[in-house]
Design a protein that fits this description.
CATH superfamily of the largest domain: Type I PLP-dependent aspartate aminotransferase-like (Major domain)
CATH architecture of the largest domain: 3-Layer(aba) Sandwich
Structural class: alpha/beta
Shape: globular
Number of helices: 14
Bound molecules: pyridoxal-5'-phosphate
Radius of gyration: 21 Å
Largest sheet: 7 strands, mixed
Strand order of the largest sheet: 2-8-7-6-5-3-4
Distance between the termini: 47 Å
Strand content: 5-15%
CATH class of the largest domain: Alpha Beta
């Protein structure tokens, strides 16, 4: 049978994730130090795990409401009010999802008609462009540059707008560059969104992981933006809960309702054990102490990795957030893919070729520093030896 004929055009158009492809080479190799997958090395804080265990012991294994447990939605609304300075109604404007991944997919499917354009800044998280394509949209990349610290300018967004543009997708701090966006820049971007009547999807998944002195600002909090913004956030990164698969979206009720329709038919609800765990994460003040202690640890690791990379001649800007560095490897005359493959083969260090995050990632490598300090030290020594031979 010709299976290619049987698969939808949209899915056929989408490539496999460059991260997954690369990491298939690493599976089963215990000798490899991985700076690859964007996943915290810390276990989920114990109070959260304990609550999940307790809920299972009590037999809490049912479905929940499609939107998610109301008690959790109320805590999320409180959290967003405190952290992002935006108020949402827990009953009608918060939807609990299976990670930010699901929320992103729901938002795009709820918003796009075939051929609608979505502007996003790249290098970016691997799923953005495929998610747009699978929702029958057209992904329009605005490439950010190393010289600007991978920042997004209002001018670049304005230049990409056409009469088919419907959505602008933002992610600060950014995966894979760690770039952040100042209030001033966001105000300029918000102006472009308002002038062109765009809906903004803001992926705030790394918002707690900032290392610079500036406050983190969500575009949703700027004047005139709440009504046109879908704020996506979740527990995977700062709370170290990737495997719980829990995220959420906050948006005006009609947008939340549209997303909820897709969610109720495709997912029904997020797992109750994860929802109970997330409730504990937000209710118990001890969690934020754990989040802060992980953040401080990431900051030390970031400073160490950036210093070592620059010393060995891999020019690397100081990222303001997330847990990635994005060094420039272009001067060695190898493509990102060749550099990453040779680093893996010759030194047993796995990092992701920059091209996995868009064409603008050619000439770069993404290294995730959510890895134990001694492993990072060894990885940097090995990279230095590798670079020395090139
Ligand atoms: N958004 C960004 C920018 C990410 O980097 C990731 C994971 O790496 C996700 C979303 C996925 O998050 P979740 O685990 O909540 O689905």
């Amino acid at each position: 049978m010709n299976y290619a004929d049987k698969i939808s055009d949209q899915v056929g158009k989408v490539p496999r994730s460059g991260i997954r492809d690369f990491f298939e080479l690493v599976i089963g190799r215990d000798d490899v130090i991985s700076l690859g997958v964007g996943e915290p090395d810390f276990p989920t804080p114990w109070n959260i795990r304990a609550k999940a265990i307790e809920s299972l012991e009590k037999g809490q294994t049912s479905y929940t409401s499609n939107l998610g447990l109301l008690s959790l939605r109320k805590e999320i609304a409180k959290y967003c009010s405190k952290v992002f300075q935006v108020d949402y109604d827990a009953e009608s404007e918060v939807l609990i999802t299976v990670g930010v991944s699901e929320a992103l997919d729901l938002a795009l499917r709820a918003l796009l008609n075939p051929g609608d354009e979505v502007i996003y800044h790249a290098p970016c998280y691997v799923s953005y462009s495929p998610s747009v394509v699978m929702a029958h949209g057209v992904a329009v990349e605005v490439t950010t540059k190393k010289e600007d610290g991978f920042a997004l300018t209002p001018e670049a967004v304005a230049a990409a707008v056409t009469d088919r543009t419907r959505v602008l997708m933002l992610n600060f701090p950014t995966n894979p560059t760690g770039a952040v966006c100042s209030r001033e820049q966001l105000e300029g971007i918000a102006k472009v969104a308002i002038e062109n009547d765009l809906i903004v999807l803001t992926d705030e998944i790394y918002s707690e992981l900032r290392y610079d002195e500036e406050e983190h600002v969500s575009i949703a909090s700027l004047p005139g933006m709440r009504e046109r913004t879908i704020l996506l956030h979740g527990f995977s990164k700062a709370f170290s809960m990737t495997g719980f698969r829990l995220g959420y979206s906050c948006a005006p009720a009609p947008l939340t309702e549209a997303m909820m329709k897709i969610h109720q038919y495709s997912m029904l609800c997020a797992p109750i054990t994860s929802q109970v765990a997330a409730l504990e994460a937000l209710e118990n003040p001890a969690t934020m102490d754990s989040v802060e202690s992980m953040r401080q640890d990431y900051k030390l690791r970031r400073d160490f990795v950036v210093r070592r990379l620059n010393e060995m001649g891999l020019e690397c800007h100081l990222p303001g957030g997330a847990f990635y560095v994005f060094p420039d490897i272009s001067r060695f005359g190898l493509t990102s893919q060749e550099f990453a493959l040779r680093l893996l083969e010759e030194e047993d260090v796995a990092a992701v070729p920059g091209t996995a995050f868009g064409e603008g990632g050619e000439g770069f490598l993404r290294c995730c520093y959510a890895t134990a300090f001694d492993q990072l030290e060894e990885a940097m020594d090995k990279m230095e030896a590798f670079v020395g031979r090139l």
